Amino acid sequence: MEKAYKALEVSGLHVHVKSKQGMTPLVRNIHFEIERGSVLGLVGESGCGKSVTCNALLRLLDPRQTSVEGSVKLNGRELSGLHEEEMRQIRGKEIAMIMQNPMSAFTPVYPIGDAFIETIRTHTRLTKKQALELAVSSMEAVNLPDPASLLNKYPFQLSGGMLQRVMIAICMSLRPAVVIADEPTTALDVVNQLGVLKELDRLRVEHGMAILLISHDLGVISELADEVAVMQHGEIVERADVFQLFDHPKHPYTQKLLHARPKLIRNEPKYNR
Ligand SMILES: Nc1ncnc2c1ncn2[C@@H]1O[C@H](COP(=O)(O)OP(=O)(O)OP(=O)(O)O)[C@@H](O)[C@H]1O
Questions:
Q1: How far is the C-alpha of 188 from the C-alpha of 96, rounded, in Å?
Q2: Residue 214 forms part of a structural domain
Q3: Which CATH number fits the domain that encloses residue 90?
Q4: pLDDT over 70 at 273, yes or no
Q5: Is residue 110 part of a domain?
Q6: Where does the record place the ABC transporter domain (predicted)?
Q7: Do 252 and 72 form a contact (C-beta atoms < 8 A)?
């Protein structure tokens, strides 16, 4: 059988932070890999280390406060020894991040087109006109209406769902191999949530990108993920195929998480007056 192509491979990732007691572990011994065109869901309670893990992958943690050990391979290329300048080239272009709060990703005093064109031109040799064309086509691809006029708007003039789509469009315009989506739908209402998830899934299918999807919401995870890693206290305690995990959770913490899912409690007959 042909060997699956790994877009992202993480092994033995440890992060420590400086504290009065010395170096304190934040995440320990993280291992996972994501194949091209597939989605790994990363779940766990608040503070368990999901964002620290992602920031460590992208080398966004402050090296004066934290130390990171382990191996991170992107399309087979080891990232851990690279210089900051090389990492800057990789971030956004080969591995991109969609953040939780789209509003904070844009500078409020500039039209959104400025952010779009700056990102494209930082990573490509396209002219401003070509970058603009790419911005418009990327926005069309995520079903944003009238992209040319949207590019002239300021962030506060767009709804949360639209801004999230703009962020996805910016992210996708450079066709990264890996996308880290950190709670991409938390700030959205359910209709927009579904739209954004569908968009991510379409881009995964059409462009074969690998997605690391971080969410508290097991509903979101079950919509999109092929595999799920469950984190607790800085460690991955269980990793399994999504159906296996939902049907036969092994670790007590996974069982607890699944048990804590909101259920519809409306079986009682209606009150008759
Ligand atoms: N720069 C830092 N210095 C010290 N501690 C930190 C730092 N960044 C994060 N932490 C701590 O590391 C732990 C993990 O934080 P992290 O943000 O990764 O959690 P999370 O799982 O993403 O939570 P949430 O779901 O709420 O976003 C927390 O206890 C947090 O306080």
A1: 20
A2: yes
A3: 3.40.50.300
A4: no
A5: no
A6: 8-258
A7: no
Give, using CA atoms, the residue closest to atom 9 of ligand 1. 52
Pocket test for ligand 1, best of 28, 45, 48, 67 (most atoms within 8 A of CB): 48
Does residue 260 or residue 263 have the better pLDDT?
A: 260
Domain tally, the chain = 1
Q: How many CB atoms lie within 10 A of CB 54?
A: 17
CB of residue 47 inside a 6 A radius of ligand 1: yes
Task: Report the separation in Å between the CA atom of 89 and the middle of ligand 1, taken as the mean of its atom positions.
Answer: 26
Residue 138 maps to a domain: no
Q: Where are the beta strands (DSSP E) in the chain?
A: 6-19, 22-35, 39-43, 66-74, 77-78, 95-98, 178-182, 210-214, 227-232, 235-241
Contact present, 27 and 234 (Cβ < 8 Å): yes
How confident is the model over 51-58, as a mean pLDDT? Answer: 93
The residue behind tokens 């209709």 is 191
pTM for the model: 0.87
In this prediction, residue 1 carries a pLDDT of 46
- Which of 52, 100, 220, 236 to mutate for ligand 1's pocket (most ligand atoms within 8 Å of CB)? 52
ipTM of the predicted structure?
0.95
Statement: residue 270 has pLDDT above 60? no
Q: Which domain holds residue 208?
A: 6-100+176-259
> Mean pLDDT, to the nearest integer, of 77-105?
86
Instruction: Tell whether 159 is covered by a domain.
Output: no
- The predicted model gives 35-58 an average pLDDT of 93
The verdict on the CB of residue 52 being under 6 Å from ligand 1 is yes
